[in-house]
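Hi all, long-time lurker, first post. I run a small reading group and we've been trying to get comfortable going from sequence to structure in the token notation. Rather than ask abstract questions, I figured I'd post a concrete chain and ask someone more experienced to write out its structure so we can walk through it together at our next meeting. Sequence below, copied exactly:
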Amino acid sequence: MLTGLSWLALEVKYLESARVFYEETLGLSVHKRGNDELVAAAGETDLVLRRPSGLPRGGLHTHYAFSIPAAEYDDWWDRLDDDYGLEEAQFGSTRSLYLYDPDGNCVELGQQDVAGPGIDGIFEVVLEVQDLDRAQAFYEDLGFETVDEGDDRTRVRLHGPMALELWEPHLGLADARGGVHVDLGFETDEPAAALAAVRDRIRSLERETDDEIIVRDPDGHFLTFVAP
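-- Answer (accepted) --
Happy to help. Here is the structure in token form:
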């Protein structure tokens, strides 16, 4: 039903410090600049950096993961470790490093099967939710598939256009937290079908046209279903 992650929006206090981190430190290309918003390309997904000037706001303390080619991992580690005191996690045969941006978002760079060079996509986003069962059912009805429910049932992992982790409030790897009031854009050939699948459980319907539908999920996250 949902075929791609079009954007992830983060709330930032100062656009310039956010730009320096994402454009100069992480090498993303900024392709849109406004008074209250910057948009950078992370592969085929946009990373939106947004000052809190209206709704939807970007996500606060959002943990998410960039894809990097496996062969570049050691170079990224050497480049970033002195300034950021990186943490590392191993997932089977792949590794991820963790650091924080100027606004407290936990940024993961993980080895993935991508061409690169450099950051080439977003492969995971973590949302904080109040009721794990409710949130899990909501996103399963949007076509996500649960692949891991964790040992203590404070988190679930689902696969769809990207990996989606739903966390009840807790600290994860690198003391990361799930994001609150996150703004996500999803590509879909049938925005109306996506709305119909969850309409009885959304918090609000913010906008509805033939090509774009914006809703808030039960935890207040903004979801946009947009035709490619």
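A couple of things your group might point at:
The mean pLDDT is 97.
The first helix runs from residue 15 to 25.
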